[in-house]
Amino acid sequence: MLFAKKKVEKKVNLVGADEVDSYTIEKAKGWKAVLAFFKSKKLRKFLWAIIRGVLIIGLCWLIIYPIFVQFTTSIRTTADVYDQTVLFIPRHPTIENYVAMWNYVKIPKLFLGSVVSSLGLGLLQMASCTLVAYGLARFKFKGNGFVFFLVLATLVVPIQLIADTMKMRFSNFNPLTMFTISPEIFSMKGGNGIKLAGWPILAVMSATCVMFKNGLFIFMLRQYFRNQPKELEEASYIDGAGTFRTFWQIMLPSSLPIMVTVFLFAFVWQYNDTTYLTMMYPQAEVLSMKIGSAASGYVTHVLGQTQAPAALTEIYSGALLIMHITPLIILYLFCQRFFVESIERSGMVG
Amino acid sequence: MYKPRRKGLDLMTKRSLAGWLFVLPFLIGFLFFVISPMYTSLMLSIHSQSIVYRTEPCTQYVAVNPTDATAGYYVVQLDENGERVVDSLGEYIYEYELDADGNVVTEKVEDEFGVELEIPVKKITKRPEYFVLILNNEGEKTYDKDGNVLYEMVTNENGETVRKVVTATESQDALKYVGLDNYIKAVTKNLNFINQAIAAAGRLIYIPAILIFSFLIANVLNSKFVGRTAARAIFFMPVITASGIAARVKDGSWEVARFGSAVTGSVSGTGLDMVSTMTNLLREIEGLSPFVDFITSAFGELSNIVLYSGIQILIFLAALQTISPSLFEASDVEGASKWEAFWKITFPMVSPMILVALVYTMIDVLVGSNNPMISYLFTTTSSATISLSDRMAMGWMYFLVTAILIVIVSVITSLFVYNENDTKVRKNRG
Q1: Rounded distance, CA B32 to CA B13, Å?
Q2: Cys bridge to A90: A80, A225, B52, B379, which one at CB 3.0-4.6 A?
Q3: What is the pLDDT at residue B97?
Q4: 8 Å CB contact between A197 and A278
Q5: What is the pLDDT of residues B309-337, one digit of tens each?
Q6: pLDDT the model gives residue B262
């Protein structure tokens, strides 16, 4: 019994089921010991650990598998592509595909374009969403609830439904006719209005919280600001600070981690984005927009194949995709905490 | 008598004005980038869009004869009503143009990455009855079945190239109000639309599956074991690596697994990959094939579910971590089993977050770009073949159904949510 007690204290186990188990197993003799072992919690715990291990490892593999396959595809030579015995690891691994794509697509230039544009648009999205969320969380005004409802509603409207008409409206922008309908809106070029496209309009969209999942950002930030103590704000008002000074000097510094989280999400989704870019700036010199056409372009234009065979384009698009997501994975490794603790940080759970 | 020290607005008005000022960016964005395009698409959906006759400046003037379409010209066939149709091949028969010596005439062009190409000049020899020539996406020329130009581009007095109607066989007005005709047409005549609607409805099963899966995984990840941080990081990774263009990583991989056999043109399913050989072998056994099919499809779906549930796992994990351990200790002392503790403590405490996760999942599954309906309506292939009005009508129908579904389901669920903090919240936040 003494032996059992000691262990209880060490493991901080309230009931001490393990120890009772091991005690009964030790005490029992012959086949009774075997029976006691099968009935014991120790066995159950052991089995659960195995099941859990298999489950977790299996599911993790399921997630990593596509990236793994894409990688092994991208290091094949043409001979490996047509070799049926090659399933994963190629017989002649090569990095020539990467070199070819690097030179053909001019990766450094496109990558720079991607990073700079995502940084800019991500920061704008973070700033505008923070402002709106603060307004919703900290001010009582008539219609506050309704505005929040609209924020959530933007998440439900599929962007694809409004993409075509948005493009029409802004390639021939005239604020006076935004809410009228006439055959004129079909004219994608010229007309009475101004042609708005490219980075400026995307910047405006970022600054007005209508980019990818910005409603979610506002929701997270609003939840965070709601949980901040009221006393902090009141104290600052009593000390003579105005509304905006309180926001800038008191509330913002303490909310930096959640803002970084939102920025990282905005950055990553912007880096991967094709929907918004196709809508407003299809010629954008960024990586995500070029991946689609580059592989088949290389096979037909440089290698001179008349029709790009799917198997051959696969190795080049694989190389491109791996080059595209590698920076993301590195970023994720370093900033993993900001992503994984995002929900906890927002205090959504209370 | 009381005299206000400062002139101007009282504090409450000031505060509410400041509030409006803070949310102003969103309101502007909502008005111009959500309301306006939504209104436009709704209006388009109740109008019919025939051949669009219009005059407009065009950046490029290209003079062509009907038979002169070369590579880079996109040809779309029209039926008698001016609706766009595609022939079975989606393109038209052409010949290479020959010079006097009988050699193929070539022209030099650069592709988008600056590689110079020499491509033979093609000539379309067989012309469909009605068609539009879209010239490098810059302008178009429409012909009737006799080869007469219905309208073309001419230079106007300002030196701009504009489209001029040559013979107006249809109304100048491109938009004709047709009421709900587009909607009725989609439901009664468009078989593709019905099929995609069924496919989209099939996706509904993902919603409970994702919720249950992420809840279970959150419970597993909440217990302590070696490598927990790594496991958590990996489960969240799809949110980063499977969004936007990066989602192609997945599409590609499934192709790769199969293309061993596809490349060499051998009979499908005889690839040397072990899993497919095994499943094919098992399928041969009588009575076993439905089970094999079920298991293989379940695993296929599982990978989708795992990819979708990154954020939901985080939501549940955060919720599980806020439950005070003393509650479990107390229930243990009172003699509750683990099963009872789960249903009476864990489940109610987590239930508010189930609502959040449910709404998030529904939005993700129903209006995300992976949804079959969304990808049917809004890809480049369908935008070339289905008229905008029809697509908008179908899109609006789908949007209304999903929005109503999301509202109904979340309202019903919120009735069952246990809110422990209900009274406390009111007291504190007043």
Answers
A1: 27
A2: A80
A3: 73
A4: no
A5: 888 988 888 888 888 888 888 988 888 88
A6: 37
Going along chain A from its start, the domains and CATH numbers come out as: 1-39 (no CATH), 43-105+291-331 (no CATH), 108-285 (1.10.3720.10)
CATH 1.10.3720.10 domain residues, chain B: 188-247+306-429
Tokens at residue A29, please?
A: 């003799």
Q: What is the pLDDT of residues A18-58, one digit of tens each?
A: 566 666 667 777 777 777 777 777 788 888 889 989 989 98
Identity of the residue in B37, B241, B317 whose CB atom sits nearest the CB atom of A67: B241
- Which among A52, A67, A311 is the nearest to B259, CB-wise? A311
The answer to whether residue A327 scores a pLDDT higher than 50 is yes
Q: Which of A29, A154, A89, A331 is nearest to B240 (CA)?
A: A331
For strand B106-110 and strand B116-120, is the pairing parallel, antiparallel, or unpaired? antiparallel
CB contact (8 A) between residue B16 and residue A140: yes
Cβ distance of A161 and B378 shorter than 8 Å: yes
Nearest alpha-carbon partner for B232 in B216, B243, B240, B221: B221
Min distance B66 CA to chain A CA atoms (Å): 23
Highest mean pLDDT among B4-18, B196-210, B271-285: B196-210
Residue ranges of B 54-93 with Cβ closer than 8 A to chain A: 54, 56-59
* Residue B195 DSSP SS3: helix
A350 touches chain B (CB under 8 A): yes
Label residue B227 left, alpha or beta by phi (over 0 means left) and psi (-120 to 50 means alpha): left
Position A183 pLDDT exceeds 50 = yes
Q: Which one of B58, B111, B245 makes the best mutation probe of the A interface by having the most chain A beta carbons within 10 Å? A: B245
pLDDT tens for each residue of B145-182: 444 455 555 555 555 555 554 433 333 345 678 888 88
Establish if A140 touches chain B: CB-CB under 8 angstroms: yes
CATH number, domain B188-247+306-429 = 1.10.3720.10
Looking at the complex, does the CB of residue A325 fall below 8 Å from at least one CB of chain B? yes
Of A59, A187, A340, the CB nearest to B306: A59
Residues of chain A contacting residue B363, judged by C-beta atoms under 8 Å apart? 155-156
Alpha-carbon separation of residue B142 from A21, B50, B83, B124, B369 (angstroms): 87, 12, 13, 16, 34
Q: Which of residues 55-94 of A touch B (CB under 8 A)?
A: 55-56, 59-60, 62-67, 69-70, 73, 81-82, 84-87
Measured in angstroms, the CA of A27 and the nearest CA of chain B are apart by: 26
Q: What is the pLDDT of residue B378?
A: 75
Q: Are strands B122-124 and B84-85 parallel, antiparallel or unpaired?
A: unpaired
Residue A154 touches chain B, beta carbons under 8 Å: yes
pLDDT tens for each residue of A87-105 = 778 888 888 989 999 988 8
What pLDDT score does B170 carry? 35
Q: Are strands B57-58 and B161-165 parallel, antiparallel or unpaired?
A: antiparallel
In percent, the amount of chain B with pLDDT more than 90 equals 10
